[in-house]
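The pair is listed for reference:
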Amino acid sequence: MASTAAVPFWRSAGMTYITYSNICANLVRNCLKEPFKSEAISREKVHFSVSRWVDGKPQKPTIRSDTPEV
């Protein structure tokens, strides 16, 4: 028996919620006026570290930066 529950449009379009929310956030940031637009875009940058584990001990972490395209 098929479910008759409503499906969110982002799910029916084959997207994940994260993809949908990222698209919405980019649209909102691009609609802002200066100087708010440049401030919002600068907060969008993400920095993180990655560590390999060998024999149960972490190795030297690598700092990475994820800067989305505008």
About this structure: The mean pLDDT is 80. The first helix runs from residue 9 to 12. Strands lie at 46-50, 53-54, 57-58, 62-66.
